[in-house]
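Service request form, structural biology core

Requester: graduate student, group of Dr. S.
Request type: structure prediction, single chain
Budget code: on file
Notes: please return the result as structure tokens.

Sequence provided:
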Amino acid sequence: MMDLHTHTVFSDGVGEISDNIARAEQRMLKLIGISDHMHYFTPKTFNSYVFQIKRFKKESEVKVLAGIEANIFPGGVDITDNMADKLDYVIASAHVWLEPGRAEVYLDLIKTALRDENVDVIGHFGNLFPHIGYPKEEELIEIIELAEANGKAFEISSRYKVPELGFVRACIQRGVKLTLGSDAHMPEDVGRVGWALKLFRKAGGKDEDLLFSELL
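Core staff response, request fulfilled:
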């Protein structure tokens, strides 16, 4: 199985890239992605990050992808074309504080990311809903349709336990790809995607419904 959302010492994780990959091997994952937070990087550390991932990729039994978790702001996603070109995928997540009743602001941020050519995956979609309020069904369908039109995927997050089952089912029905992520910040949590996998299967998901299914 896969885990495409893991962090290392290059951002706010505690393990090295090699530690995360070693844990993925122990858990017998087929695919791991390293996806550190965008705002921790300078051009120099970013180049070192990509170099290390590619280096360990050659030595690992697990397929390893170079990713990043970018931030969504009202003005856009904080990833440049040059950086995205060096990566295998980009997760875009809304790391914002919103007052209750501001779900429309969150959805506008997600729409911004769904229109960004550099973005591949929306991270932990809906994790703020318990605090800011739940959108109407038609608003969620609009989000899924925009993802379908732009070829984007949604992450099923074991850490935040989102999205909801109905949303995942709707994605599968419309051909919107999904990923599984632990959001691990320490090596021992890499591969802990049991909740995400269970929800994915309950929604009727098959391997072909996952992004990078050809690598599984």
